[in-house]
Structures are given as structure tokens and as C-alpha cells.
Design a protein that fits this description.
single chain; 260 residues; alpha+beta; five-stranded mixed beta sheet; 4 helices; 13 strands; 40% strand; elongated
Length: 260
Amino acid sequence: MTVNTLHRPTHRDALVHLEAAIERGDLITMFGRCTVDYDGRATSELGPGDRLVILKPDGSILVHTDEKRTPVNWQPPGCTHTVNVRNGQLRVRSTRSNPDERLDVWFDRIEQCAAYAVNDRSDLELAGSEEDLRQHILADPSVLEVGFEPLETERQSDAGALDIFGEDSDGVPVVVELKRRRVGPSAASQLRRYVDALKREFGDDEPVRGILVAPSVTDRAAAMLEREGLEFVALDPETGKPPVETGEREEETDSAEDDT
């Protein structure tokens, strides 16, 4: 693996280094004094601080402080990274168009900048995946609810592919969205889009149920599901049964926890 590292580079030297690394598709890490501005579904500003910024070749960006395991700002895969120097600062910009979002990281000072030519094509073997959840439900639909009948998997709709499509004991269409880990509001929103897509297909007057299946759900997501008339069923991906209560409270995180 090739590694190119700059220690305390000037902004111009860092600019040349970063532009070449982005062009090559390298994994990039930067550490220094920066501010962060986000504009998209909301707006936010993060004042000056020493932070670690990671740019991945899949288009994702993570901004980490010296606390906690989750980034304070981030953008998902599929974004475009650009770099320039303005007003005596180095700006790293990450943008995407669907939805329209922009994340700017402004560096006053760069302590270290490294680019890694990473070769990692090994697939992560997951214990307890969404496919495991699907197979548990197909093998025993009653784990979802008594009388549920699966009809199709990966059924196409104008909002995307439905994990499981079926009917309940009264013949009402049911959309089942599967998640292998604790989920937040974005999973509830995704389920809402699928339900709305089927209502457009079947007719707005036809009832369609939506059930989100995951090991657990955040308070915000639970409130959203209730507000939208959607349902939640807790199942462990490994066992296909309700998770065992440990009495420990999980950290409430609603950003980027949902697989698409």
C-alpha cells in the first residue's frame, strides 16, 4: 500500500496533494484546526476546533472530534469532493444533489494530511443480516404477526424495491422494511415512501400497512411511526425472535444508521 503524507503543509501544498489523491481515488485523512458548515435538509455551523477529517473514495466524508465514536458531521457515499484555497483557508467541499446537500470544512491550519492507496476488496461477513431477517420471516411468517402471508420479495415500486410484500389475515397489503440494526427516523421515512408508492399503485382509497422490522428503534423514530400510522416489530436478525432485554439503554443516534 502506498502512503503519501504531508506534515504541516502550506494550504497550496495541501491543495495539490489532495487534488491528486481525490483524482486517484485514495483514502484521505486530514487533521487540523477547522470550522464546518452544512447546508441541506437543515443548516448547521461548527466553530473552530482540532478535528480529524476522513475522505473516502466512495464519496463519504466524516468529521471527528476527540470524543465519542460517531462523527459530528458527515456526508454519505455518492458525494463529490472538491478542494480549493480561499481567503487564506483551505476548503474541502462535499456535495450531492439528491437531496441537495453541501458540507464545507474550512482549515485554518493543517497538521497532517495523508493519502492511502487502499486495496480492500474483502466482503464483511455479517452475523445477522437483513437477508437473515428475511429468511426468518419467510420460514415462519407468524414471527411478524399471525396470519401474515408473504407474497413477494424485492417487489418493485416507484419508490424502490420492497424487502417483503404480503397480506395480513384480512387481505390488506403489507409492506415490510427490514433493518439489521437499531434504526432512526430515516428508516421510518423510507417505509412511508414505500407505503405511499403502493397507495398510488392500488388507489389512494385502498388501505396499505407498513411494518418496520429491526432489533430496536430510537424514540424519535417510534414517535414518527406512530404519527404516520406505521408499525414496528422488534426481531433479532440472528435468531428471528424478539431481542432479549438487557436493561441497558442504547445511545440515541439518528444519523446514518439506516442501510438503504
